[in-house]
Amino acid sequence: MRAKRTSLVHIIYFSRLNLSSDPAKRSEQIGEIGRTAQKKNEFAVITSFLVIEGSFACQVIEGERSSVHETFDRVSADSRHRDVQISEWREIAKREFVHSFKSAQRTAGNETLFAKANLLPMLQRGTPKASAIHGLCLALQSDTMSRQGIDHLFV
Ligand SMILES: Cc1cc2nc3c(=O)[nH]c(=O)nc-3n(C[C@H](O)[C@H](O)[C@H](O)COP(=O)(O)O)c2cc1C
């Protein structure tokens, strides 16, 4: 029999980024966030996906309850974004994200997925649905994995 799993939760939040308007500086700042987040998340066995849409961030963070709590406390106190709002925080039966930290922004290759999710107007009104954020993160993950030819490993 399999060992009983610890209780898994996910948090879905959105926020407004306080990043540089200079594209080179901004991508350096995003890279820096990713490097720290990946190390910390690996250590805490957190899996996550961050979407950057215009000046907004949306992230799904999943893992063991206390690890997610600690991670979110740190993330929400970070001055590189503000107006951090939880859209959903609940127990989940299993993880849906594969990597400790991945982030995606609009590119020519994923434009249709961003357009379909149509998050920007919802973010501007301050009313994005958790299901829309979650759906876009999953779609972007599947897209990347199928381009890499590893999607069959995670069905
Ligand atoms: C949009 C955004 C997403 C972030 N995501 C994570 C994350 O998933 N995990 C994490 O540990 N830190 C994340 N961070 C970085 C944390 O806010 C924090 O800087 C980092 O964990 C280091 O914390 P410390 O300086 O208290 O050690 C994120 C920051 C931002 C702005």
Automatic annotation (TrEMBL):
Single GO molecular function: FAD binding
Q: Which domain of life is it from?
A: Bacteria
Upper taxonomic lineage: Bacteria, Pseudomonadati, Pseudomonadota, Alphaproteobacteria, Hyphomicrobiales
Residues in BLUF domain copies: 8-104
- Give the InterPro entries listed for this entry: Acylphosphatase-like_dom_sf, BLUF_domain
> Which parts of the chain span the membrane according to its record?
none
Q: Which Gene3D superfamilies match?
A: 3.30.70.100
The family database entries (Pfam families) matched by this protein are listed as: BLUF
Q: What is this protein called?
A: BLUF domain-containing protein
